What does this fold into?
Amino acid sequence: MERPTAVPFWRDVRVLAVLSQIAFVLVLAAFAAFLFANLSTAMRQRGLVAGFGYLRLESGFEIGESLIPYHPSDTYGRAYLVGLLNTLQVSVVGIILSTILGVIVGVARLSTNWLVNKLAAIYIEIIRNTPLLVQLVFIYFGVFFQLPPLSQTLELPGGVFANQRGLFVPRPIVSPTFLPWLALMAAGIVAAVVIWKLVTRVFKSSTLGTWLATIVVLILVPTLGWMLLGAPPLTFEVPIRERFNFRGGLTLTPEFSALLTGLVIYTAGFIAEVVRGGIQAVGRGQIEAANAIGLSPMQILRLVIFPQAMRVIVPPLTSQYLNLAKNSSLAIAIGFPDMFAVNQTIASQTGQPVPAIALMMGTYLLMSLFTSLIMNIYNRSVQILER
It folds into this structure.
């Protein structure tokens, strides 16, 4: 029997595939080296030095809002950290609020009530078809900038005050009993889940009594803990109006309030469409089967529709979260000192635009990768639960 001849390596498909990939990487590396050499030469000709040593120099400029102590005598690195924390603050709060609003509007868009359906549709169409920058400018100059002066402060329910200086809201204050109370709350949640599981397993279904017992346990344990711990675990410091300003409470500047409001309203419009598409992707037959076994509309939505819709909702929802974080850079239009605005000031003062931009791009990249990692982990858990 004649033995098959070996294929020469220059004709082997597997070898050629590996060589082509190596060649592509080498060409890409050469192109990157060419661009870096040109950039370095241009910077040297203009007396610029590529590096991040400028971050150790004194900044010398004020920042209107800061979550950490900051003074003009601090370094550019600390100023950049202030901008980063401001961006993270508005991004995290915006993601939470826009998700809540987006889910509500998305479900309302599918409502059988004509008025609710049309109001949700009008909101979605207006928000999704106008630029975010225009909305931010309108919210800032048309709403928050038009608030009355301090002498005519608007008093809103819940101890909230509004005037041209911003929103003054109650500030939560944590006491030493807060952590023990959190432990009791976690115990109450565990007890409620155990009771619900046991009763459901015994009666083979979740009745109204099951839900009532679960809710009672969920509320009773934290309430008893609040009463028995002595000092309240959490108190709220209500802002007190004085002659020239407010004392106490938490102050939300007009810039922060306008940016957060704009990002939430804008992103919620897109999240609503994502939720609507995910719900409509669930087969009609499963909804009819749930109706046939006597499930209520809320049970159908919670037990049948949303668990299956999440596998469709999560991937585009991740994109909306990333867009919200990146859209926060538009804060420069209304004077909020986010990472982009602070970094622009640093670049103009230090004369180091390239390192400053590279640092900012790397920071946005890390934020996006971390958000994607969290959402991908959750997406995998949803897929596992569905199977």
Residues 76-170+238-363+371-386 form a domain with the MetI-like fold fold (CATH 1.10.3720.10).
